[in-house]
Amino acid sequence: MPVRLYNTLGREIEDFSPLNKDEVRIYTCGPTVYGYPHIGNYRAYIFADTLKRVLLYSGYHVKHIMNLTDVDDKTIRDSQKEGKSLKEFTEFYSKEFFKDIESLNILPPSKFTKATDYVNEMVEIIKKLLDKKIAYKSEDGSVYCDIKKFKNYGKLSNLVLEEQKENAGGRITSDEYDKENVQDFALWKAWDEKDGEVFWDTELGKGRPGWHIECSAMAMSNLGEQLDIHTGGVDNIFPHHENEIAQSEGATGKQFVKYWMHNEWVLVDQKKMAKSLQNFYTLRDIINKGISPLAYRLWLLTANYRTRVNFVWEALEGAETALKRLQNAYKALGSDIGKIDEIYQKQFKNFVEDDLDTPKAVALLWDLLKDEKVVNADKKATILDFDKVLGLGLENLKEEKIPEEISKLAEEREVARKNKDFKTSDELRNKINTLGYEIKDEDSGYSINKI
Questions:
Q1: What is the arithmetic mean of pLDDT over 327-355?
Q2: Global pTM?
Q3: Of 2, 233, 379, 392, which one has the fewest beta carbons inside 10 Å?
């Protein structure tokens, strides 16, 4: 059975077939490094990571590029507010982002690309668009993409230009805007005083790139003119990804991306989580509550990536409890690693290859743990196999040394239990619990785990 993925371009699930059988080329829209990303942003990166893990699990070689937007309206605005150079400001938040994705057990991409390293490549694409009359220079020296010259504009977002009130007239300079403002977008922004010291002297004049051209340049420079998969959040579909298609295909005359894939929003109080609405949380908020970032990953895996989820602390606390249960159950399986159970593996593979059905995959993991027909060593091997996709870091768990005091209390309780002195047994269990450990009775005796 082939891997099947939902393609935003056709609005349906399709069999996956890479352009080159030897390598899958993926580009992920990464963060704009002007602050700590909120946990809604991290859904996009956990989704892209899960997709990559599934493709690796299915035997594909993957080349994955993720960008860091280190020059745009926001980075310039906020670096000036803090009185820092653009480089100093964005490098701080880039390093914080790297720490965050490590805590979420996100596999690093083949390469992180910074927009400021690709200005020359952006200029070359813009020159091609100018030569083809798909782009034009305005009076102030800025360069805009003429969306009416790109006949398929709107194919990703199902936008029909003729139905727009403005009929796609006029120009827009801001990086982000909505469908009510469908206008020619900026490829190159001529310098003005608001940009301060942020500019490049190029053949196009003194200025800086627009946001949309950055991703086209970074993607094509590292992956070629045609990509297999491009990922991002649904809020990137318009205008960002729509504009990427127009400028990339306008420049090359080739289809830019075969499969466009997008994850849905994380909501708060049924509203989109966003910095502009001041209704967001960061990973630091989660960690400060004593919750593991991996609990957030697990919570997201229990929902389909194309389903909106509403964030509440109670749900995350439930995921933290489930993660601890899973970790303790895994450790209780012992140190021996046996053989992967082929029946469970086949089921798991069918689930994750069916448009990343992680909710069914997680449920199967719990079924495996409860299955008494599978010996512990084989359970452990199979769980480790599953975790290549789920990314919950189980292989990194280490057996914790149980304090001597706890071990002694557990032995006393076991004696009381065998003597049917249940009052003493319960008292000792409670004492063990108050010291931060729990005891689980088993056919072969008992196990002790940290709560």
A1: 96
A2: 0.89
A3: 2
